[in-house]
Amino acid sequence: MIPSIDDRLASVVRALTEVILPHLPPEASLAREQAHLSIGHLQILRAQIDAAPAFEREELADAVALARTLGEAMTGHDTPRAALAAAAGKAEAVDSANGGQVREQCLAVNQAIEALIAAVSANGNAADQARMTALVIGHEQARAHKDRVWCAPFGFDTL
Fold this sequence. Notes:
0% strand; mainly alpha
């Protein structure tokens, strides 16, 4: 029987906690710090692993929504707009069960958004630049809240 992902992560946490950390000399402060950081990340991964696919699909859906909104709102910039539409269309067709493909498509959509932003920033008219800025900031405010909720187990943010 193959151990579950959770069991394997727990095993790594135990190895770091019970075997490696006790054998690190006190003067190896950086190594000790990194071991504690690794343990913390592994514990968060254990807590988030079941929700990760849905979170990644939501990130992709948000990226596609921003891509569609920007593509419709910008005038001109046909080449980056076409790439944006193509990336968004391909992303919408992704099989939601394939996490790797979800991440790959999210990256592609975000890269297409970045290219449109660069084109509008460099060569767009003032109205497109202002509209683009407002749309991106509005999108990112909502996305930042979702990311803050997702990262709450780190304890860096008090929400």
